[in-house]
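Human:
Take a look at this sequence-structure pair and walk me through the tokens.
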Amino acid sequence: MTGIMISTLAERPELAPRLWDMEDSWPEFAQHDSLAWLLYPRMVAEFPEYVLVATDGDAVVARGFSLPFAQHAPGRDGVLPAQGWDRILMWAFSDRRRGVEPDTVSAIEISIATGRQGEGLSGLMLAAMRENARVRGFAEAVAPVRPSGKPAEPDTSIHEYAYRTREDGLPHDPWLRVHVRAGGVIDSVAPLSMTITGSLAQWRDWTGLPFDAPGPVHVPGALAPVRCEPEQGYAVYVEPNVWVRHPLG
């Protein structure tokens, strides 16, 4: 894949304003996670050495965010949290504020530009993220993986889906398969990895769906049903992810 250059924002700070230039495949509702709104700008400002950008000529074709955190701090004890993505964001910034030494890097996001998917860029970005953590002295990286095939099966338990394999023993899910081929090992499920709340009007705006009946709502791009509570005037989405460990030794 000639022409692709992957750099950190620390190496190429001029790319920071262009991180969101590219069109990606995230569903609209996913742009409204409260922690993301609060902390993504701070990742760019405070952790540029852990933000990766892939360019092809002048075009930004992929981005990757990661964060260092203290997995083995007291009270955490090396156990990856059930709150997954949300909890890592909180831990990383809390550790930085309190001067706690990180011992692990967690992936936060790898996104590929629409129109460039299927070219192997996701594997390249994952490899670059692993190498970036390794050269900074870390022995392990982890990832709260958002399985790419799960939106097609929103009612399937993440506990069953995460461990489903093909005949060759590799994961059934394509994105989990990329991680395992890169040397990752499925560790556990993060059933509460991301929580997005909104009024019924907001969910209607985000999805184009009526959100007028109580119970589960199947939303395109969601890994699990969104829970609608019309009498209370809100709906809640709780996204499950799959924890993958990547030894870097």
Observations:
- Strands lie at 4-8, 51-56, 59-69, 104-112, 140-145, 185-199, 215-217, 226-229, 234-247.
- The longest strand covers residues 185-199.
- The CA atoms of residues 6 and 83 lie 30 Å apart.
- The radius of gyration is 18 Å.
